Fold this sequence. Notes:
Layout: H1 2-14, H2 17-22, H3 30-49, H4 53-69, H5 78-92
Helix pairs in contact: 1-3, 3-4, 4-5
Amino acid sequence: MIVGNSVSALQYMLGSDSTRKMLHDAPGWTLPVLIFILLFNLVCVIALFQWKKWGFWGFCVSNVVSLEVLPSIGLDSVLVSVFGIALLYGVLHIGKENKGWPQLD
Length: 105
């Protein structure tokens, strides 16, 4: 998640030709919101590595916001968003007495 969000944010910020072509029909607010979501996801992942529960909830909020943004650029994000939240929640509940979820502050 750190690598993916970082690379995507850099791609959108540097404005490569493929990004401009992909966003040519999107509203003007789309690119800044996408960059914000990616950077916010990066902050949330770092918070999770520091055992902060708000990192999980922030990730959930950013995925809900992305449900409104990603269709504007032609991406179907419902399955990806739900799968991402479910996967992260599941990973935090792996293990018996060493689960990650109860260890989050």
